[in-house]
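Give me structure tokens for this 414-residue protein.
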Amino acid sequence: MLAEPSGTYRTAIAISTHALQHEKPLGRGKRHGWPHIMSDFRKNDRRQLASIDSRQMDSLRVFHEVARALTSNLKLDSLLRAIMAKMEDFFGPEHWSLLMVDEETGELYYALSTGLDESLLRDLRLKPGEGIAGYVAATGNPLVVPDVSADPDWSRYAQAHPELNLRSIACLPIRHGERTLGALQLNNSKLDLLPESSIAFLRVLCDYAAIALENARHVKLIHHLSITDDCTGLFNSRHLYTLLEQEIAEHAAKSTFRVVPFMKPHFSLLFLDLDYFKRVNDRHGHLVGSRLLAEVGNLLKRVGGPDHAAFRYGGDEFVVLLRGLDKPAAADLSRRILEQLTQTRFLSGEGLSLSVTASLGLATYPQDGNSLHDLIRASDTMMYMAKDCGRNQLMVANGVAPGPHPSPGISRHV
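Here you go.
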């Protein structure tokens, strides 16, 4: 479920109606009668609305525009930039930074910034409690210092970091529920010239940023679940087709603009089918079989490395997309995968120590197929050939048109 701005709108209403709460009660006209009373009410309403501070009207406009962006767009980067643009227009800081929490390390990293050298911030990480944003993220408390020189602690901090030229600080946590998602830091805004409600307005912007971050996290999680095989943690066959289409389109575009037409880019596709896997299920049960598939998947990811992608195609079949590898390089890596597979003892932690062999088929784009289905057919046919020739080996396509291709997801257990 996407996040909802629970208290955000109440805060927005409180800010925008602050002036109205201090207006005099509506007066009554000299003449009585319903039409005249309504006329007096309308006149007083107009006077009250006219008395609202222009900055509060700006706040309402910003709330409306940001809320509209949140309900019409789930792209995180564009949403955050829209929110930060409104903040920048309203507060006019010399420089600002939006820092986000890395969920794996707990450290803060700079997601967006203005007025600072982004190349210096790109690889910078702040530990919880470190610096201004680290302090705010660790404590969950906002930090507002309108005049740094009047605060002994932050005056010393400013003197220790003259490159920041700090005169004022406003740093607020970006939180959703009990979780801190990041921090927004504004340096050298004219806080002393702004009304008290401005900080509440900044809190609302941070609430909006938290909503955007949480919604983006949910969308990312849903997308991850839709492309992942739940047994092995590898990509599923649906995502294989998506990535293959992208890979072919990119390589076709690159080859179109090459000066030397025969120097075409390459990538390869490795099909892998476990030998006699049905015997594992029959002897040890399907639960053990599923755990074995998961360990084989981990091996493929480890040996293949981060440059390539591994998939569970269906049953006991796996596919590895070998990006940027021509036939000789892809064959070398495929042999290493087969070697590691045959030398590894699986499920030893459960006292089983199972050995596994596999039949592998390799095809390369564009020599063995210049379309998605041709390439899959070529590598799958080579895998069948490896089985027919005794299993536990690699067969490499040679550019000859392959035979009929079985439907994806049908496992070869024989």
